[in-house]
Amino acid sequence: PANKFIAEARYFRGMLGMSGDAHVEQAVADLWFAAGTTVLDDARRIRALKVLAKHHVAREENDQTARALTEIESLGGLTELAGDDLLWLANDALERGDPARTLRYTQPLTAGDAEVPIAQHVRALILSGRAMRDVGRPNDAIDAYRHVIALPTALATRARLELAQTYKSVKQYEEALGEYEGLISAPQSRIAA
Length: 193
Description:
77% helix; mainly alpha
């Protein structure tokens, strides 16, 4: 019981400490302690990890962010992760050379659920396209990019560039050239967006 009281005290001190600037380092240590203990219920551990993830994202501490988000996943599954968290993990996995993990994290955002905000859906499709290209699924990547291009989004230009690169990677040079030409001749105001 004493361990549980200590864990709860550190959890609450950590949560309180994150609300100000004076005790942030101690608060981070407390929350990592609380998240790592098994005497607290999973809901509190997950809340501590979510606060830690936001803190580390804001400070661009990628290893600590990845640690917090993957621990949330291990405690509660992908459903405990917000869309932005899934996108962060997907991008991190892609940068670390793990496109299969990228696809696992983007799948909930690309499955066609109407509750996913369009901006998250579009970013997930672009990351999925890059990952599919990397795992040797260029036709799926092409479909993902075409889907983005059909949507009213500022990222359509980025998707066209990715589409052109995918065509080039599978030696479909005429299609790649067509996309590059389309990008060059597009109105500058659209490209700037």
